[in-house]
TrEMBL record:
Keywords: Membrane, Transmembrane, Transmembrane helix
Listed GO MF terms: potassium channel regulator activity
Principal subcellular localization: membrane
Originating species: Henosepilachna vigintioctopunctata
Top-level lineage group: Eukaryota
UniProt keyword Cell membrane present: no
Protein's name in the database: Uncharacterized protein
Cellular component aspect of the GO annotation: plasma membrane; striated muscle dense body
Amino acid sequence: MASGLWGVGDAVWQTQVNGLYGTLFRRNKEAAFSNYRLWESMGFVIAYAYSTHLCARMKLYALLGVLCVGRKKRRRRLLHWKQLQSKRFLLNPKKLMMKKTILMMILLSHTCREILRIPL
């Protein structure tokens, strides 16, 4: 029962992520999907490489570290976009930051799922 629910949930999640990428990157769909698959596979490889060497607590600390680095980079990028906007460039930083935030949340939740799925 649980494995069936897990499979249905994973299928829905993958469909939603692919649909989101299709709407966010209308002009460069091929590049967006290939980039997504590249980093997804890289996450699988990294998680597999350290799965036997670290316990679940250390994996969660590593995930927290990645989250902190991502937030710091997002804040730096937001400041950069605000500086560009103050110079009257024709950019919409809110839309761009929304895309980056959504993508970061997707990547983080996907990584967390994969870390917790790996046996200890």
